[in-house]
Amino acid sequence: MLIPDDGMERLGRGEPLPDAMQGRWVDVDDPSGVLVVSGGEVTCFGQVVAYDYKIIDSGGGALTVSLKVDKEADDEAFQQANITELVITPEGEFHAYNVSFASQFVPSAV
User: What are the domain boundaries of the chain?
Assistant: First the structure.
C-alpha cells in the first residue's frame, strides 16, 4: 500500500467523500448529466464508479479526490471508463473528469 505525500489522505471506498462534495449535482452543459455523491459512493451519468480507494488532497486551495483501483493492470481501463478526479476549485466550482472528458457540476434543484 502506498502512503500518500503530506497533505493527502488515502481512504477506503467505504469512507465518505468530503462534505462539500456530497449531494446531487447536474452538469452545467447538459442538465441530464447527473453526479451523485452519497457517503463513499459516487454515481456519474447513471453508473456507479467501482473504485477501491480514494486519495483526498486539500493542498493549493483546491479540494481534490482521486478515485483509484488497487490492481495496476486494471488502472488504464478504469481511467477510460470512469470519472477519476473530483475537484472543488478555490473559486468553488465543482469539476469531475477522467482522461477522456471533463464536466463542471452545480447543485441540483431537485
Answer: 8-107
